[in-house]
Amino acid sequence: LAWRARGRLRERPAAPDARGLWCVALAAALLVLGRRADVFVLQGYSMVAMAAGLVWTFAGASWLRRLAFPLGFLVFMLPFPPVFVNNLSYLLKEITVRSSAAVAAALGVNLQREGMNVYLAAGTLRIENPCSGLRSLVSLLATGALFAYFQPGARWRKAALFLAAFPLAMLGNAVRITGLILVAHYASLPQAAGRYHDVSGLVIYGAALLGLIALRRGLEAAPGAPREAR
């Protein structure tokens, strides 16, 4: 992304700014704190802050503004704080299991749900943390952010692309869990937890990604949309 912006960067002469040293100092402090406290996430964020601080210090604020998205996009390679991940993962699981169990029951499956456990005639299906859909959500958010960056036109179009990752990820995961329940009911628990569990994750994520691509093309074809790419 920075390489693609090199032409516009050349038009802005570098103007070193000593104020960027405050950002460098903050990044160094985060690194020391992360290593002392053995918190990897702080060490990761310190690297992003250090990169921003170095650009600000040696090239100036105009370069930093131009490279804000490429630098900020690096955040998607870092893990989120554990407290945030645990709370969000539980919330996503609660919504997914509740909706999937309701849909499966409406399709004729005799079941009972208690927390993250779905009790079937074939046995108990427990929805663990990896099935919360958080990984797909983060991946789709990263893709949506990238699409939004290259999406021409008004800001609402960019926001729509980015925010669409939330319902697409949640809907896709709900479809996947509903499928798990149906396979466990009509086939067996081993089949549901085996090949279907592994393959369905890739298939559903691919479908959600196609939905994001379709939304982008729809926004580009919508009336009033600019025809020139960014």
Describe this structure in words.
- With 230 residues, the protein is mainly alpha-helical.
- Helix content is 70%, strand content 5%.
- It has a three-stranded antiparallel sheet, with helices on one face.
- The longest helix is centred in the last third of the chain and has 33 residues, at 189-221.
- The radius of gyration is 22 Å and the shape is elongated.
Keywords:
230 residues; mainly alpha; 3-stranded antiparallel sheet; 10 helices; elongated
Question: How are the elements arranged and paired?
Answer:
Layout: H1 6-10, H2 20-37, H3 40-59, H4 61-66, H5 68-73, H6 82-106, E1 112-114, E2 117-120, E3 123-126, H7 134-150, H8 155-163, H9 165-186, H10 189-221
Antiparallel strand pairs: 1-2, 2-3
Helix pairs in contact: 2-3, 6-9, 7-8, 7-9, 7-10, 9-10
What structural class do helix, strand and pairing data support?
A: mainly alpha
User: Strand-and-helix sequence, N→C?
Assistant: HHHHHHEEEHHHH
Helix content: over 70%
Q: Please tally the β strands and state the result.
A: 3
Mean pLDDT: 87
**Percent range for β-strand residues:** under 5%
Helix run count: 10
What is the 3D shape? elongated
Strand order of the largest sheet: 1-2-3
Most strands sheet: 3 strands, antiparallel
